[in-house]
Amino acid sequence: MRPTETASSFYARRVERTLAFIEAHLDEALPVARLAEVAGLSKFHFHRQFRAHVGVPVARFVARLRLRRAAQQLAFSPELRVLDVALSAGFDSPEAFARAFRAVQGQSPTAFRRAPDWPRWHAQFELPRALHHSHAAMSDAATPILRTLDPIPVAALEHRGPPATLMASVQRFIAWRRGSQAAPEPSTRTLGVLYDDPESVAPEDFRFDVCAELARSLDGDARAREAGVVAKTIAGGRYAVARHRGSTDAIGETVMGLYRDWLPGSGERVRDAPLVFHYIERVPRVAEHEQVTDVYLPLV
Questions:
Q1: Do 171 and 86 fall within a single domain?
Q2: How many domains does the chain have?
Q3: Which GO MF terms does the UniProt record name (predicted)?
Q4: Whether residue 139 is found in the same domain as residue 284
Q5: 291 with 232: CB under 8 angstroms?
Q6: What local confidence, expressed as pLDDT, does residue 136 receive?
């Protein structure tokens, strides 16, 4: 225990270390004895300490994290067979995987792939707050870099509605972009524009633009019109840029770190413009814990 550390924060830090280890080793066997060793806690008491801190037993947490990843693979990696996803999640057969997936998600893997119930996914697979803090500890919110951006023309899908349904908009945008030459990957940037704090507005009023940098005009793009994709411009100017590593579910901790820990003593003032996210590495190209997102705070 550190000299100034309380017993509560000591155990919290040990469990958070274990959460990060679980994320990074989902493809491996994770017996309690191994996790207790990672935490530096007694194997006889670790499972109770984990449950007290996270709220669920460690075995259930590992299973849910694997099913969460499986759901993302089903939705965003159409080239993967359900069998491939099942094996990646640690199941011996598609049947066992389907039973476990349906018990949590309420849909079979095939039905989820065809028409995901994203609000239920959000409710069932939301990461625990302890893991949010673990990701925040890996962010650069306390020491952002100051940058000046040129305006960025983007293709944007305007999400309007509950944050729990944002993934449906993301999925629709990805489906459009996959066949588009206007904003091809990986040569153009993937971005997001956050207009509202999801904790400060009614769910139906939440606004977020899912964006990709434009390589050419959308004029005459019938697929873009059908998908609801429009041309916009992300404002240029000065920004403070903090790097967030890990799940974007926890990106709010990095955002708050900019406002709470850096801005008051920076001598800077925020500009009347929304936050911008630049998704540098993201699911499904990398594992969730390997994602990298730069958070752009607009400055005067």
A1: no
A2: 2
A3: DNA-binding transcription factor activity; sequence-specific DNA binding
A4: yes
A5: no
A6: 61
pLDDT for res 284: 86
The CATH number assigned to the domain holding 209 equals 3.20.80.10
Q: What whole-number distance in Å separates Cα of residue 128 and Cα of residue 55?
A: 8
What range does the domain containing 184 cover?
135-299
Residue type present at position 284: P
pTM of structure: 0.87
Q: How much is the pLDDT for 158?
A: 98
- Find, among 291, 294, 295, the residue nearest to 72 by Cα: 291
Nearest alpha-carbon partner for 266 in 294, 238, 234: 238
Beta bridge partners of 191: 211, 278
Q: Lay out the sheet containing 207-213: strands in order across.
A: 145-149, 237-245, 292-299, 275-281, 190-194, 207-213, 152-160, 229-234
Q: Point out the residues of the chain with pLDDT beneath 50.
A: none
76 plus 162 within the same structural domain: no
Same domain for 157 and 283, yes or no, is yes
Residue with tokens 């994709």: 229
State how far the Cα of 130 lies from the Cα of 8, in Å rounded to an integer. 13
* Inter-residue contact 298 to 237 (CB < 8 Å): yes
Do 249 and 126 meet the contact criterion of CB atoms below 8 Å apart?
yes
Q: Which amino acid is at 245?
A: R
pLDDT at position 115: 95
